Amino acid sequence: MSKDDRFAKQRIADDLEEPVDEAGNLARKLGLTPYPVNYWVVDYDEMNELIAYGGFQKRYPHWRWGMQYDRQQKQGQFLGGKAFEIVNNDDPAHAFLQESNTLADQKAVITHVEAHADFFANNRWFKMFSDGAPPRAASEATEGGPDRGPDAAGMLARHGDTIREYMQDPDIERGEVERFIDHVLCLEDNIDQHQPYSPVETAAEHFEDIEGVDVVDQLDELDLSDEVKRQVFDDEWLDAQADDEDGVTFPAQPDKDVLGFLRKHGMAYDEDAGKAVEMEDWQAEILELLRREAYYFAPQKMTKVMNEGWAAYWESLMMTGERFAGDDEFVLYADHMARVLGSPGLNPYKLGLEIWEYVENTENRREVVDRLLRVDGVTWRTFHDVIDFTEVQDRLEPPEWLQNAVEHLDELDPEDPRVDAESLERARDGDLDAEKYPWKVLTYEGLAQRHYSLVKPQYRGFVSRVSQEELERVSRYMFDDSRYDSVEAALADVDYTRGWERMREIRESHNDVTFLDEFLTQEFVDDNDYFTYEYTHASGDYRVTSTDHEDVKKKLMLQFTNFGKPTVVVQDGNYQNRNELLLAHQYNGVMLDTKQAADVLERTFELWGRPVNLLTIVKEFDDHDVEVAKRRDREPEPEEVGKRLRYDGKEITVEDVPWSEVEHLAATDIDYNTKPDEWTA
């Protein structure tokens, strides 16, 4: 980098120092609790490199990064795509700002990043990796206290150094290391992301019946105590031996962490010897390093819609609602937001933002309805007949002084809980620029009322649209029997923070699957014009098939369950007592691409060292039924058939299997285990 480039970046960084500080202050005043964020100014090429590296500056050597860099560069060059920012889940988080961005773009990025850092710091799925990850160095351990988040940049840099050393080792061929990484990366999403990360312990699990030796009999001959056996061998493995008289069968239950299973029991194939041999130390270590990285990145894949929607919500509130975008920057910011929300395809920013706004509105409506149902003479049956919704809307409007606090500084009451007394005094003394930062003279409660969602023009009919079912449900669970003598008195007690409080509760516990499962309702689908479409054999093209929220939900959840990838588990590590690996595809109505599956089996063979099998279910259509369906404009009924793919190191074979062998894999509808308490039980 030239001296001029360094000076240019320093000037940009100096100009952004105040927006960075104030965005953090505003985020915390709005109730967010983000990790500290370090901001870096980078140029176009550096930004593309960071995106290719997944948001980090140092990774292990591999061709995938160059491929991703080339793709990102071409996207910007030919498709007009623009990277505004990248931020990583770390404590402190690191965010990178492109130097060519306008100031409006930079402010939008900074407010967006603060919300991401809040999500990283508070969502339970991100904490699962931190809880199971190796501890920080002793010098770092006390800096942030016991609850400090991950040191991902340090971890990934150490992984890169380790792999680079193996590649430079004269006794190890660099190409072999790269090929081994390719094999592992092919399975990087085959982990159990619903469990905390923990490193695989290596011990005598590797004593499986590799050469036909009866390990159980040998243990009996040694006359070891049960206590000693349990200290040396895995409980699951020992239990499996005792339960199977015909041979070693493990795991006792299907194992979703395929990478972890291969780390425990996998071997390498020695072509000269024609048999499986123990992995080299470098292979075993690289497999575990890449498995750890897969667990680190898993929460980001599991919460893409929630996280981007969360960041878009708070960014918009800060930039427009609190005038963080200056008057001369507002139009540029509007263009920025339009491009983000207008991206084609399944847009996580747009979908996430819409659901978060719906969550806020429904919680605020529940609070208002709860108050109104306590008014004398109002019941859930008479609600729509006796409530004047125009009056309700008028009384929910924030007072003029709250909407325009700067214009009413002399009228603000420092004793009012919505007013920040200390900041008000500084503003009156001229020590605080309330014109530039009006939010500083208000408290969290004041900001919540100032931005109350139900008084926004686009949501003014939301309260009146409450259904009889919801009214009855709210009425049934009103345990507080206090009453109001008027609508005015009832609405005076409304808690304006309820929507934001509920949003933060959800942010802590949910991921995309549970988020969609709980909050994608018929009302939401109707309001936002969502629908499903399917390929129809009758017409040979795609058609809209449903606007029912259950169908829309299932369609969307298919794209987020297990990162949108097929769920494959280890069913047997000694299939047919031949040391073969049996994987099973948990079929949810969507077929595997058998060509891709065959390629994956070839990769898996390199990590198992012995033949690999895969059970799955496919849909088969009778040609005659398809022709009849076309003439009658209806869909043919497919037949579901069990298949077993097998790779023995030389060729792929595919054969039909009896339905009884795959029946346990078939979904009666579309199976989703969507409750976090079940995942982590």
Automatic annotation (TrEMBL):
The species this protein was found in: Haloarcula limicola
Positions of the SpoVR-like C-terminal domain: 566-617
Taxonomic lineage from the root: Archaea, Methanobacteriati, Methanobacteriota, Stenosarchaea group, Halobacteria
Designated name of the protein: SpoVR family protein
Domain SpoVR protein-like N-terminal positions: 14-367, 497-564
